[in-house]
Write a structure and sequence with these properties.
Blueprint: H1 7-65, H2 69-82, H3 88-102, H4 106-119, H5 123-139, H6 143-153, H7 160-173, H8 177-189, H9 195-203
Helix pairs in contact: 1-2, 1-3, 2-3, 3-4, 4-5, 5-6, 5-7, 6-7, 7-8, 8-9
């Protein structure tokens, strides 16, 4: 803008500029306010959804912990339906799987755990669900399926030693005593969560000259 020498010229220049740019300025302000208000509304909605999901999950845990299996199962299914896009959906699947195991419904437990793996946004939670799924499949005598789950999800991370223990269970179920011994030893050395139980399994293995391995 050229140098202005009088107040009248300044006022006229401002009027001219506003006439040319005022609409765009107002539109920018409106859009900016709408974006801020929209973000706040979305954030508040997300917080409310999270609070409702958290409360539902607490109620689910209370029902499951008190042995109210039918109620817990219904609550888990309702939580998943209502809050499928929250982390609580995968946690509800895990809780439902535990309830199904206590009801001796291994097929139902496996279904819930597969769902948990698919829903889990956290890799660690997905791996935990995979570990539990493999254990349920072993109990169901679905050894090939269990091994496939282990191979898919054992990335050498925190659950590696625990997966080694499950490999030992699979080998033992197949009569592969040498392989079971090696897997159990690896699990113990790696600090598996149930190391004491694995030690007992290792001690109970038949003699090392078993011909099946």
């Amino acid at each position: 803008m050229a140098e202005l020498t009088t107040d009248d010229e300044k006022v006229e220049a401002i009027k001219k500029w506003w006439k040319e740019n005022g609409t765009a300025v107002i539109a920018g302000i409106v859009i900016g306010l709408a974006a801020v208000l929209g973000w706040r509304a979305w954030a508040n909605h997300q917080e409310q959804v999270g609070q409702r999901a958290s409360l539902a999950f607490e109620q689910l845990l209370m029902a499951a912990g008190s042995g109210q299996h039918a109620s817990a199962a219904k609550q888990a299914e309702a939580l998943v339906d209502a809050h499928a896009k929250t982390p609580y959906a995968a946690l509800a699947d895990l809780a439902l799987a535990k309830v199904r195991v206590e009801q001796d419904d291994l097929a139902g437990a496996a279904k819930a755990l597969r769902s948990a793996i698919e829903r889990a946004s956290n890799p660690g939670l997905a791996t935990l669900a995979a570990f539990r799924l493999a254990r349920v499949l072993i109990a169901s005598d679905a050894l090939d399926d269990a091994l496939a789950v282990i191979e898919r999800h054992d990335d050498g991370g925190a659950f590696s030693a625990d997966f080694a223990g499950l490999r030992g269970d699979i080998a033992l179920a197949r009569g592969q005593i040498g392989d079971a011994r090696a897997a159990y030893a690896a699990a113990i050395a790696g600090g598996a969560g149930l190391s004491r139980l694995i030690e007992l399994k290792l001690q109970d293995l038949p003699a090392a000259n078993d011909s099946a391995s």
